[in-house]
């Protein structure tokens, strides 16, 4: 069982287990003290500040400390991008954001920089957005933010501190192309999560990215397209570009060309003697074409647009009027 010490720049009345840096410097370590963890809420912005020395001494005293000196230096070493287009800012306390819209970014920032208090700035990039993280001392917070921090601190100190795993060394990087707004995507969220997990076991770092977030495709080793593909579409263009850049691509551009076109597939099946449903290619919606279809098939019929995938562009027609209507729409597509 760990004893928790909360170290601040200036004394805070009514806060148990809270002490100033001067008290921590003078009164610890104590003989026979239990295992101790230190939450350093001092300002660590400046090198050799109280906050810096607090974490440094805690590590020397074999106290578990948050943040570590390594994290303090990492945050100090980062340079804020120049002339950024700021979208919004918020504070994250122990990885917890008061605004639920920041929850995911807050957890990621805390995983990357395990510090009690982080100020996050969300800004626009040429491709999507990114965030900038910086450390803030408890005494620099406004009263409402101090209360939010205290609530998060109470929750955090009641949980077990787990030592973060060292990041896995990946051999390859793979982009998984998705469209979050697609109504019927090829893979749902659960399948995508399992894909990322399975890739990690094979030494592949997989990222879920939209076309806008993808940036330079050549920075990856592979592209896995989990957005509905089409020929006259960005999925085909990205697949072709990725192949030219030497990436392993699924679905590759040739497969998209072949599998998205029903005319090609039917001809390939017929040529190679592969059993397939009876198929007739309808070139027009004329009366002659309608009559030919009715002589070949009974109702209901299944109509497919020549190009499509994952069952898009597939329609059932139950009578001649539906056949004519669907034929007119197809010729206008």
UniProtKB/TrEMBL annotation:
One family name in Pfam for this protein: RLAN
Would you say which domain of life the source belongs to?
Answer: Bacteria
Q: Which GO terms describe its cellular component?
A: cytoplasm
One GO term in the molecular function aspect is:
ligase activity, forming carbon-nitrogen bonds
- Annotated RimK-like ATPgrasp N-terminal domain ranges read 21-79, 89-128
Tell me what this protein is called. RimK-like ATPgrasp N-terminal domain-containing protein
Q: Which organism is it from?
A: Litorivicinus lipolyticus
